Predict the 3D structure of the following.
Amino acid sequence: MKNIKYIIGTFFIGLLFFTSCQEDDLEFGDIVTPTNIDINVTYLDDTNDDGIAEETTAPGLGSGEVFISVTADDAISYQVVIQGQTKVQQSGGVSHIFATLGNNTYPITVIAYGTGGVSSSRTVEIDVLSLYEPPQDLLQMLRGDGSRTWRIKNEAGGHFGLGPVGGDPFSFFSAGADSKAGVGMYDDRYVFTDDGTFTHIVDNTNDDPTVDPSGTVFGREVLINELGGAGGGTQNGADIENYGYEDYNETWSLSAPGGVETLSLSGIGFLGYYIGGNHQYQILSRTSNEMVVKSTDGNNQFDWGFTLIAED
């Protein structure tokens, strides 16, 4: 991989979010608010033909992948908030993939924690370039000759699952065939058209002879409230079953950050089970009429896996 460094710079953080007096604490000792947050952004891209990495202030060469490392005076831990995801810095930094095509500007919020839980934060903006030309067979698979309709492959085991972030999304749980019947997932249809439109039909059983946009969806507790729909539904553990919602339209795009084919949905667009997050689905495998995808939830707690099959 090619590391292209872009030093955002050092930002002096005053005594922000001062949550307690500067007195000795019997348990923590002096409580000192972190200062001087330094944010270092490294753009990751392919190496040149000669294998030599170059340094530049340009926003990468199109991979969309970055590595962010943070330091600060008097800090003991760090969190980085990117595109609605909160990531804890470990092993010197956090990585993130921006899948939206083009040269785009994104805010990054860094929170530095000191003793006793006091914290300082800083928000900066970075430019990231993501360039990608999807292969024709991927486009043909997804939207056919103009439009194609997909659904969760509920008749097969392993159509829905979860696992660790960055790992196998079916390793913690893998749904058996038809095991999630009646929760608002299996009657959903996902339509991809060649003009970039994504249509989510939340109940395909009530559209004959006329279209009825009403229906229900399936999702994660609290996160599903981001939809802002009619709501309700039934809580089953951490799942919300049959949350009232209506058909909607968003847009879709394809990219390959880090060489991984990725399907991105705009706004609140989602597949199968609402998990919030960045609405990006890595394509783990695909055939001409089937694909397995995964996405990280908005709590940065799990990766969720879905197997979809085309209806036409």
